[in-house]
Amino acid sequence: MLTFLLTSCSMFEKQDFSSVDYLDPTKYEGTWYVIENIPTFFEDDAYNSVERYTFKEDKIEIDFTMRKGSPTGEIKSYPQKGEIYNKKTNAHWKIKIPWIPWKFDYLVTDIAPDYSWVVVGVPNKNYVWIMSRKPTLDEKTLIPIRKRLKESGYDISKLQKVPQVWD
Asked: Following DSSP, what letter does each residue of 143-155 receive, concatenated?
């Protein structure tokens, strides 16, 4: 836990608060499947990771669920609350995880024009999530996303595929 806190919140690392120019919360709301990520410690060995977003004005309810270890493993749920921090873009959020006493910056850094996929990252670039409205995203779409992530400073060698195995 201490390693996570130190690596994700270090004041000594360069912080990049770049995000997309504008995010429409009504289009963003709903279910997103995590396709690839640089995972946090509690996402190791995750299957069927899903994030569900509900917006109420500038407040955000996030319901993150996953299965641990296999597609039929134990269901883990990590509800989070957030708020839109940058109200001009709606793409910079402050997120509160219940067992941690402070808020984290989350940035929507890339999004499809039709909101079919999205990339969410953190300012120090230690974590990132590539998500899709469907449980799969083709390589033709992923290759340029990974390229943009690398160009913006993410270590894409740390990206992990999140198995999405649904009946």
From this structure: HHHHHHHHHTT--
- Per the structure block, which two tokens stand in for 165? 């195995």
Range of the domain at 96: 13-161
Total domains in the chain come to 1
Cβ neighbours around 118 below 10 Å, total:
23
Phi and psi based region of residue 45 (left: phi greater than 0; alpha: psi -120 to 50; beta: remaining): left
Q: pLDDT tens for residues 96-147?
A: 988 888 899 999 999 999 999 999 999 999 999 999 999 999 999 999 999 9
Q: With respect to residue 25, please indicate whether it lies within any of the assigned structural domains.
A: yes
| DSSP SS3 for 3 | helix
**Which tokens is 108 given?**
């929507």
φ/ψ of 128, rounded to 5, equals -155, 150
129: region left, alpha or beta (phi > 0 left; psi from -120 to 50 alpha): beta
Q: Do the Cβ atoms of 121 and 107 come closer than 8 Å? A: yes
| DSSP at 123 | T
